[in-house]
Amino acid sequence: MTIQNKTLGEFIIYNQDDFKYSSGELSRLINSIRLAGKVVNHEVNKAGLVDILGAVGGANVHGEDQQKLDVYANEAFIKTLTNREIVCGIASEEEEDFIIIKGNKKNNDNKYVVLIDPLDGSSNIDVNVSVGTIFSVYRRITPSGTEVTLEDFLQPGNKQVAAGYIVYGTSTMLVYSTGNGVNGFTLNPAIGTYYLSHPNIKIPEKGNIYSINEGNYIHFPQGVKDYIKYCQKEEEDRPYTSRYIGSLVPDFHRNMIKGGIYIYPNTSKNPNGKLRLLYECNPMAFIAEQAGGKASNGFMPILDLKPTELHQRVPFFCGSKLMVDKAEEFMK
Ligand code: AHM
Ligand code: MG
Question: Is the pTM of this model over 0.85?
């Protein structure tokens, strides 16, 4: 990375016009996520030191209570977004219900609601493996100045105005889209600044990676079993290679850069799969489509699904377009 690279802050200023109807609100929102992401990143990086600094759930050497990281991340994002008074509501994978933001002003006339999975894949933290934050932004549909209601959050994914994720990996990256392509920014931890490192990301139309928890094979629908056999067959560019971290963000990120498909299907045990439509699938689907890829529930586009509840789960097939097309063929 050279110093000529734009910082995220500069990028937002240069691309003000991308934020269509914006009075700067969406830019401020992305800025808040960038800030909270840095706070969480700092904490995630210390995770391996808990034995030294004090166990999670107990008190650290300073006598302060140590929080579990997913709880910490949840609070960090909610606090940042609330304090800056830029949204009118937040829904989080960590909270049962959505949060109404009233703000200090007489009327909260902010336009946007944010849905967030503050720390996805958190079971990987204990073993020093990458995790991520996922976020999704909608314009409210109820009248401005009133309290948000459930319907502001239950909008189909194709109504997203922005979505993105932060991957806490070997480097920390923020990847997001406001509907004009996808850009990736890498954090320089020495100075706490994100630099544009991956402009205009495009998912290869086809790749050779398939990512699925094959341990559940016995419970998969026949179409998924057949697709896996297809991936493993020796023919043309196959067999494909299998890569599965068990953290959606880095699994998706790798496939987006290299080309591949991520699948979390419905199983006989979990008829709707595991991943949450609003916090995980919709934002990832938005990014995938913005990068020229595809996301489906096996039969129809994820972004066209009409959500019925906040914590709804859906089967998820996402990544390189031609690979998702092929998996859908097997699902028929
Ligand atoms: P979480 O929201 O409880 O962290 O679970 C979501 C995670 C995803 O990051 C990952 O892709 C998936 O669960 C892995 O599930 P499994 O362990 O069943 O393969
Ligand atoms: Mg999650």
Answer: yes
